[in-house]
């Protein structure tokens, strides 16, 4: 009996609990489900949104909930009244029970909106009626940050609101959330608001709070570019922060110290650096890349074109205040002296040398001090280095020896100084393998070339230098230097190098006077270079046929010059290309005519079986922008017509059986004109390539309707390809 009663009681209790839970869930659901607004509530909200105070007051008696909200925004009437800066509406709603904090799911609060709209009276009223001065908007911005960050608000208003908020209990340190990753003190400092910074510090703001990049307020302040008129405020703010025990040697995530950032900031004056140093900044702090403030200033000197004088003064100040001039970058091994030479700051290099900096380079750093000084043509620095015991007279890494660099700069006095000090006159460039004499000739430096020759410089180049000394002079287009070398007895007037022979190089790069000189000294007019090109072929291949060319590049005159001196017009290079084929490729009608008149074979073929006419009609680089190349298109047509008139085979094929007519069909407007020219002169409209392609199929592939009609009119057969 007792057991039965007990079991029944337990079942009843379980059923009751289950029913209670169900009822609770139903109540919870009813409280959280969407509550549709009545027409009166909608009218009330419309009045708030449209800032219609009269209508707002008229509709209020008809509604049941003062904090009614539109479903899409979830913001109450008080929010809209604050946003509309309607003090009377705000007062009306609050007096009738509106929640001063609005709804939690609205994107902002009435207080923040009143701040953003610049209404001190509404802000004051909302706080008085219980608005939470630390409640954030959807972006996690609190009211104090809103007052400081809004760029529209005046500094005076921001300060006034900040005082009110702080007095009312606002958190002066905020939280690092969302994209508001800094505190109010950060914002006030960065806006150079001295009064607000003082207010926040007096209210207990954390002067050493860091943002998400590891910057303290002081560090961030040193990073911004400041206008000249802000300089005084920033200096005073820095003094305030330091007086509040800001960590002067704090570093960011990259290890850059406050001093390093200040030194690298061209908008900060010298007195800012002095202030930091006076307050104990570590002048030798090293960042994650192994650089100190001194090395970074020197290394980046060239970047600050407008503030180079200020940068030099900052460098001098750091050195004066104990910056370690021997400190090597922990990763590159480079010293301040090496960096100053590379940055071409002779004044600083001198200061470092006289201050006892290590003169000779270390093995880790890629910079060789003496070579680098010569590279930047700093004779004063070179002399200082030598006078203070430099042992690098022949040292080099990437830039060549000091002598080679002096030669390349054309600094004759420096060249003499280095040779007098024992520079190896025949040392080869580490990378290019060429000697000082080569570079003197390449730059057309007559005086230096003569001096090096008189000093016994070797006149033959060695690997990996690719050209002879004579070709170097030819490339410089210096007649006097070329003549000097020939007078000195250089025997390689017909020598071969990667660039060619002296005459094939001179064909395109030198004046006619140098061409005459080379021929007078024994250069062979038909000697082929390692590509098989004669001077004439090299000229036609390399020359630019623009109408605006300088007269010294006049191809026609040069071609006539070579032909007068016995140049053969039909010699082929290693690819079977003749001067005429090169000319036809570029459409210079006058040059093509000259070569033909001098006996050029119009039916010569290259090693790939391409005839001159086939090449002339097939070059397609023009058709992409035919409107830009009208003269080139005209030249192409005239050249093709000339070749045909001189007996060029209109049915010539290349090794794939591709005919001249097929080659002439491409997606250009002049394709039909070329095709008609060829057909009118006997081109076979039904010829097939090795893979069965016909001119008609080519025209169909290129969507050339005019050519298709022309071919069909001339008897082309519409056959499918055999492949």
From TrEMBL:
Keywords: ANK repeat, Membrane, Repeat, Transmembrane, Transmembrane helix. The chain crosses the membrane at residues 12-29. It comes from the Bacteria. SUPFAM superfamilies: Ankyrin repeat. InterPro entries: Ankyrin_rpt (IPR002110), Ankyrin_rpt-contain_sf (IPR036770). ANK repeats lie at residues 76-105, 109-138, 180-212, 254-288, 332-364, 398-430, 432-464, 498-530, 575-607, 656-690, 691-723. It holds the Pfam family Ank_2. This is Uncharacterized protein. It comes from Leptospira adleri.
């Amino acid at each position: 009996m007792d057991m039965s009663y007990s079991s029944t009681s337990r079942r009843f209790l379980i059923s009751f609990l289950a029913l209670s839970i169900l009822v609770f869930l139903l109540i919870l659901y009813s409280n959280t489900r969407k509550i549709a607004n009545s027409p009166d509530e909608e009218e009330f909200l419309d009045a708030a949104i449209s800032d219609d105070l009269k209508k707002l007051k008229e509709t209020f008696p008809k509604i049941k909930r003062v904090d009614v909200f539109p479903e899409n925004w979830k913001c109450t009437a008080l929010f809209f009244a604050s946003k509309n800066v309607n003090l009377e509406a705000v007062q009306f709603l609050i007096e009738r029970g509106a929640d001063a904090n609005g709804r939690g799911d609205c994107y902002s609060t009435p207080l923040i909106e009143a701040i953003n709209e610049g209404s001190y009276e509404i802000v004051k009223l909302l706080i008085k009626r219980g608005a939470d001065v630390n409640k954030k908007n959807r972006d996690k911005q609190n009211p104090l940050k809103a007052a400081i960050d809004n760029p529209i608000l005046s500094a005076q208003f921001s300060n006034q609101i900040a005082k009110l908020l702080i007095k009312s209990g606002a958190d002066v340190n905020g939280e690092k959330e969302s994209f508001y990753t800094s505190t109010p003190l950060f914002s006030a400092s960065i806006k150079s608001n001295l009064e607000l910074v003082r207010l926040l510090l007096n209210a207990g703001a954390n002067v050493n709070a860091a943002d998400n990049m590891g910057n303290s307020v002081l560090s961030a302040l040193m990073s911004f570019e400041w206008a000249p008129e802000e300089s005084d405020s920033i200096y005073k703010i820095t003094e305030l922060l330091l007086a509040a025990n800001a960590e002067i040697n704090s570093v960011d995530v990259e290890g850059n110290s406050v001093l390093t950032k200040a030194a690298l900031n061209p908008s900060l004056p010298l007195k800012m650096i002095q202030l930091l140093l006076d307050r104990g900044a570590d002048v030798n702090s090293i960042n994650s890349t192994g650089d100190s403030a001194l090395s970074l200033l020197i290394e980046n000197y060239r970047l600050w074109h407008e503030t180079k004088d200020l940068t030099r003064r900052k460098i001098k100040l750091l050195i004066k205040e104990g910056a370690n001039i021997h400190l090597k970058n922990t990763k590159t091994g480079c010293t301040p002296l090496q960096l100053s030479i590379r940055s071409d700051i002779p004044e600083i290099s001198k200061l470092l040398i006289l201050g006892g900096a290590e003169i000779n380079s270390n093995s880790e750093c890629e910079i060789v001090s003496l070579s680098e000084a010569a590279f930047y043509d700093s004779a004063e620095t070179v002399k200082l280095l030598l006078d203070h015991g430099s042992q690098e007279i022949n040292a080099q890494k990437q830039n060549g020896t000091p002598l080679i660099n002096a030669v390349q700069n054309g600094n004759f006095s420096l060249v003499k100084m280095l040779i007098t000090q024992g520079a190896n006159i025949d040392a080869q460039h580490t990378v290019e393998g060429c000697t000082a004499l080569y570079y003197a000739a390449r730059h057309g430096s007559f005086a230096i070339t003569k001096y090096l020759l008189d000093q016994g410089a070797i006149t033959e180049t060695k690997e990996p230098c690719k050209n002879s000394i004579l070709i170097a002079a030819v490339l410089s287009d210096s007649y006097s230097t070329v003549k000097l070398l020939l007078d000195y007895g250089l025997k390689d007037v017909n020598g071969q190098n990667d660039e060619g022979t002296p005459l094939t190089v001179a064909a395109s790069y030198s004046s006619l006077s140098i061409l005459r000189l080379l021929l007078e000294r024994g250069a062979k007019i038909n000697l082929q270079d390692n590509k098989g090109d004669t001077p004439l072929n090299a000229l036609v291949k390399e020359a630019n046929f623009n109408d605006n060319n300088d007269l010294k590049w006049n191809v026609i005159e040069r071609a006539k010059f070579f032909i007068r001196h016995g140049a053969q017009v039909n010699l082929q290079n290693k690819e079977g290309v003749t001067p005429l084929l090169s000319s036809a490729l570029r459409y210079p009608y006058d040059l093509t005519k000259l070569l033909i008149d001098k006996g050029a074979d119009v039916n010569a073929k290259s090693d790939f079986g391409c005839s001159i006419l086939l090449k002339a009609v097939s070059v397609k680089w023009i058709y992409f922008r035919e409107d830009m190349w009208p003269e080139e298109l005209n030249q192409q047509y005239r050249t093709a017509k000339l070749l045909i008139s001189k007996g060029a085979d209109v049915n010539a094929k290349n090794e794939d059986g591709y005919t001249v007519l097929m080659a002439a069909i491409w997606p250009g407007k002049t394709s039909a004109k070329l095709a008609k020219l060829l057909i009118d002169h006997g081109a076979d409209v039904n010829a097939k390539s090795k893979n069965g392609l016909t001119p008609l199929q080519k025209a169909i592939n290129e969507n050339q309707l005019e050519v298709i009609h022309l071919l069909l009119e001339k008897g082309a057969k519409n056959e499918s390809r055999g492949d």
